[in-house]
Design goal:
Blueprint: H1 2-14, E1 24-28, E2 31-34, H2 35-66, H3 73-84, H4 90-99, H5 104-124, H6 131-140, H7 142-145, E3 150-158, H8 161-172, H9 177-184, H10 188-192, E4 196-201, H11 207-214, E5 225-227, E6 230-240, H12 249-278
Antiparallel strand pairs: 1-2, 3-4, 3-6, 5-6
């Protein structure tokens, strides 16, 4: 039934696409790309999913009004500012929105809708997280929540085994690791930073490489190791032991938000299904 409604609606709306405003968005070697071109492209790629989501959104916002759900305006402002901060300046942010026909007001309205929908699900499905829930989750995930052991590493990376062997011989003869990486590494970033790749948490490197590094003491370096399409030598500058997680107020707050969001995601399809069963969805002809 859901698919039938969406298909019928798509057929009715597709004919209106040609009426979209022909605003030129970009010109490529003299050829114009208009807002209507973008609309038609996106329509055929994402229309079914988008229409389904719009129907769900209308139903959820209607339920929000029915339940007299409110939202935190300060949280909405914070989300907007976080989004805008991803651009170099306000003008760049607004120009990017303009390309797809959006305004800052549209984004604020979208954020408001997202918060209202979230709060509607929480209220309608009776979602709550207690201190006991948080403690149980913490105990079950204590190891993952802690800070793993980390290593400060230097790296020399070259393209061939012969180059790697030469670098290893130079190190054995007393060459400075950082300077040698700055001179010999084929990776530009390694040369610029004299081989410094910063601190790496345990578990992020390939197990075979970590095994070699674990065997080192600070100041020591590995033999040449195959990495990607070349060879690397790693030097352990220092190591920092891991830290066990502590259930302080900050972590409690973070876990509460995470558990609520998890529950909201799980309960969303259930609530939408209930609302669709009671709704009257009419397809325009």
């Amino acid at each position: 039934m859901k698919k039938t409604i969406i298909f019928a609606a798509l057929m009715g709306l597709t004919s209106g696409l040609v009426c979209a405003q022909e605003r030129v968005v970009v010109t490529v070697n003299g050829d114009k790309v208009t807002s209507a071109d973008i609309t038609k492209k996106l329509w055929w790629q994402y229309s079914a999913k988008g229409l389904s989501e719009l129907i769900d959104e209308k139903l959820l916002l209607k339920e929000a009004a029915k339940l007299k759900i409110s939202y935190d305006a300060k949280e909405a402002d914070k989300r907007f500012e976080t989004l805008a901060a991803g651009y170099k300046d306000k003008k760049d942010f607004e120009n990017n929105l303009k390309v797809v026909g959006w305004t800052s007001a549209d984004v604020r309205e979208l954020i408001k809708s997202q918060l209202l929908i979230k709060n509607t699900i929480i209220a309608a499905k009776g979602i709550s997280v207690t201190d006991a829930d948080i403690k149980t989750f913490f105990e079950q995930n204590k190891e993952k929540l802690g800070k793993p052991e980390s290593f400060k590493l230097l790296q020399i990376y070259v393209g061939t085994k012969a180059e790697a062997d030469d670098a290893y011989l130079a190190l054995s003869a007393g060459a400075d690791f950082a300077k040698l990486s700055g001179l010999k590494s084929t990776d530009e970033n390694l040369r610029k930073k004299n081989g410094d790749i910063g601190s790496i948490s345990k578990g992020l490197l390939i197990p075979e490489i970590e095994k070699e590094i674990f065997a080192l003491t600070p100041g020591q370096y590995t033999k040449p190791i195959v990495t990607g399409n070349g060879y690397s030598i790693f030097k352990l500058e220092s190591s920092k032991p891991g830290e066990s997680a502590k259930l302080d107020d900050t972590l409690k707050a973070e876990l509460k938000i995470a558990l609520i969001n998890q529950a909201v995601t799980q309960k969303l399809p259930e609530l939408v299904s209930e609302l669709r069963q009671k709704a009257k969805i009419e397809v325009a002809k």
